[in-house]
Every structure is written in C-alpha cells, then in structure tokens.
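Narrative of activities, Objective 1.

The group set out to show that a structural description can be obtained from nothing but a protein's sequence at a throughput compatible with the screening campaign. Below is one input-output pair from the validation batch, recorded exactly as produced.
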Amino acid sequence: RLSTSIEITKSGVYHLTGELENGSVTIKTPSNGEVKLILDNVTIKNSSGPAIICASADDLVIELIGENYLADGETYNQGYDADITGTIYSKADTIFQGDGSLVLDANYQDGIISKDDLKFISGTYDISANDDAIRGKDSVYVVNGDFTVLANSDGIKSTNDQDQGKGFVLIENGNFNFKTSAK
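Output recorded for this entry:
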C-alpha cells in the first residue's frame, strides 16, 4: 500500500499495482512525451482531487489488467484548476486498452475527461458519475469494450464545437448499459 502520491515526469511505461489511499498519480512530461500506465489490480482513492491527472504529455495510454478501482472526492482542494473535474483528467490524447476492468466512482463531477481525443480499444468499464461519465473534448472513439454507466448527466459526449472535424463520438462496437439523467 502506497501512502504518497506518484508524480511521473519522464516518458515511458509505468506498471502500477497495489493501493494508493488518499493520493493520486500525476503525469507531467514534456508536451511531446508519451506515457503508458499499466493499471494491474490497482486501487486509487483521492478524497481531495482526481485519482489520475495528466497535466502534460502528447499521448497517454492506460492499459487495464485485472480489476482496478478509482475514486475521487466529493470536493477538490484549492490547488486544482477549475476545469479539472474528473476522476481521470487528461490534457493529452488518451487511449484505454487491455482485457481488465475499471470501476470508477466520480464523486465530484465527471468520470473520464480528455481535453483532446479519447479512445477506447477494449476493456470493461463500470462508471458512476455525479455529472458526465465519459467526455472527450475533440472526440470520443469506441472501438470495443463493455460499458456500464450511471450518470447524473451525459453518458458519453464530445464538446468541441469550434474546430471543423472535431467534437464527435464514434462507436464501432461494444456493449452498453447506460442510465443517465441528461436533459
């Protein structure tokens, strides 16, 4: 069991396993950096902010192995920017893959946010969100996966309405069980 937060400052592959109670994984690599996080039976809970934050990188890949659990707090402390509202928050292109599962409790607002492109290649996702479950600014692309979502707003959305060719959701395959309160 880890007792302190983890900060990743160099490109590379990082294999995480075990528990992190009341902390987070923060990625701050050069803007051309690529980081792969392998979540291997991981539990990360942060009572005062996101579980995973990618503040800077070019690409973030999250591979799921086994059963993983992430949760954020009902409130975030003052150290976070106002737009950081997700249990997983990424400013990079973000790809999810692997044969494992992710249970995600978004107690503050959103479940998974990418301020760029967000892609799901495979995996099993069980997301409970106080607001949106999955949000990619430029796009959300689902190749495959199993998704169970309970959200107080949108299940999946893309929000870029400024750039031509951006702001879309594309679903090729997968299994979906959504309960949302979106208006």
